[in-house]
Design a protein that fits this description.
Blueprint (H helix, E strand, L loop, with lengths): L1 H18 L6 E9 L7 E10 L5 E8 L2 E12 L2 E7 L2 E3 L4 E4 L5 E7 L8 E8 L4 E9 L4 H4 L2
Parallel strand pairs: 1-10
Antiparallel strand pairs: 1-2, 2-7, 2-8, 3-6, 3-9, 4-5, 4-8, 9-10
Amino acid sequence: MKNFKYIQFIFFLILSNSVNSNQDSIVFHGAYTFETFDGQRACAVYVSIFNNTNKDFLIESISTKVASKAEIHEIETENEIIKMKKKENFLIKSKQQVFFQPGGTHLMLMGLKKKLDDGSSFKVEFSLNDGSKKKVPVMVLNEKLKENFIE
């Protein structure tokens, strides 16, 4: 059963890549989060972003139906204290690859409206400065897999 979940996750990553593999666009790939427990109010989402274009993009806002608020957060160390800092917007330069990952820049969903169950998925919508909106599927992974992603 454990191997099936890994296979399911890999299949999801391949599928999301084939759906978004336009070389003349900005591509959001492999978005995931971890399952939540009843009453949990926030969670982080991780995603890889590839700007295959010759122009810069600015992520102006993020939204999702599963939370009342979605923000981009960066991790900063100030006087040996680690803090999360909200980014008002996020620049993705031409031909740049950006990785939102544990311990670094990530999406923060706050005011979760429901429990996120292992194996389920939901969408996060990114609004870009050119007026386009990208709906990105987010796979919910088993909480026990965190030890494989976070050191």
